[in-house]
Amino acid sequence: MGTVVETPVKEADATVTVKKPTVVFVLGKHFVLALSSVFVVILSGGPGSGKGTQCANIVEHFGYTHLSAGDLLRAEIKSGSENGTMIQNMIKEGKIVPSEVTIKLLQKAMEESGNDKFLIDGFPRNEENRAAFEAVTKIEPEFVLFFDCSEEEMERRILNRNQGREDDNVETIRKRFKVFLESSLPVVQYYEAKGKVRKIDAAKPVAEVFDAVKAVFTPKDEKAAA
Ligand SMILES: Nc1ncnc2c1ncn2[C@@H]1O[C@H](COP(=O)(O)OP(=O)(O)OP(=O)(O)O)[C@@H](O)[C@H]1O
Ligand SMILES: O=c1ccn([C@@H]2O[C@H](COP(=O)(O)O)[C@@H](O)[C@H]2O)c(=O)[nH]1
């Protein structure tokens, strides 16, 4: 996240003067100060709508760091962490892991990336995730890319995905669709009301979807010059 300065402070000595802190994380007794602003884009859309596929393209073309909340949670299970079994059970049921767990993983990945431009893929999953993330990190996304795709197409894609994911079966997929409609879409609507949603027709072939994504990321003056 650009320049990150770790400043150990005593509890009774917690006055820190910084010229332009944009993000302040408190980790135990360490204040971690991110001195440059971060640029965050959220990718939302139903399971299988193609968010991860397009993130790979955006990373390659625009130099962002891709943070997939689902991938971070799956890595946490593999690492043998104390939360692993809880996370695994939630994912099997298509349920939303407690905000605190996901936010800590996202923060850590941001700090370790050395970048200041992030694609946050598949988070926030509900209003509580969103409010907790903004309260803890003080980060507001620049915009939200919303991948619009029918359930029939998303289900077809997931069943062909072949990545051995435990939640890529018809029973869990249906639960994930329900959670998406009931809990995740309201987050998109929240950002829509703030004028931050950029809707993408995600039912098209990968290259055409990326053309639409590129148009969102390309500054207007560059578009005019092209
Ligand atoms: N536009 C597209 N047309 C056809 N297939 C696609 C398209 N985009 C992605 N796919 C394929 O669909 C599957 C799901 O895509 P991807 O993993 O990118 O979706 P996702 O939104 O990240 O899913 P999830 O939220 O479940 O992680 C993959 O096998 C991918 O190769
Ligand atoms: O912020 C998040 C992201 C994901 N989950 C859980 O993981 C699975 C899989 O997520 P993908 O985005 O499809 O990789 C999801 O169904 C949730 O169970 C989460 O809880 N919170």
Label this structure with key terms.
UMP-CMP kinase 3, Rossmann fold, single chain, binds the ligand O=c1ccn([C@@H]2O[C@H](COP(=O)(O)O)[C@@H](O)[C@H]2O)c(=O)[nH]1, 9 helices, binds adenosine-5'-triphosphate, alpha/beta, 5-stranded parallel beta sheet, disordered N terminus, 226 residues, 3-stranded antiparallel beta sheet
Describe the structure.
The chain is an alpha/beta fold. The protein has a single domain (15-71, 99-218), classed as Rossmann fold (3-Layer(aba) Sandwich). The chain has helices at 51-62, 69-78, 84-93, 99-113, 127-137, 151-159, 170-193, 206-217, 220-225; strands at residues 4-8, 23-27, 30-34, 39-45, 65-68, 117-121, 143-148, 197-201. Strand 2 (23-27) and strand 3 (30-34) form a beta hairpin. Helix 4 (99-113) crosses helix 5 (127-137). The radius of gyration is 18 Å and the shape is globular. It starts with a strand and ends with a helix. Mean pLDDT is 88; it is low at 1-23 and 26-31. Bound molecules: adenosine-5'-triphosphate (ATP) and the ligand O=c1ccn([C@@H]2O[C@H](COP(=O)(O)O)[C@@H](O)[C@H]2O)c(=O)[nH]1. Adenosine-5'-triphosphate (ATP) binds at residues 45, 47-53, 70, 122, 157, 160-161, 205-206, 209. Ligand LLZGTKA7 is lined by residues 47, 69-70, 73, 90-91, 94-97, 102, 122-123, 125, 167, 176.
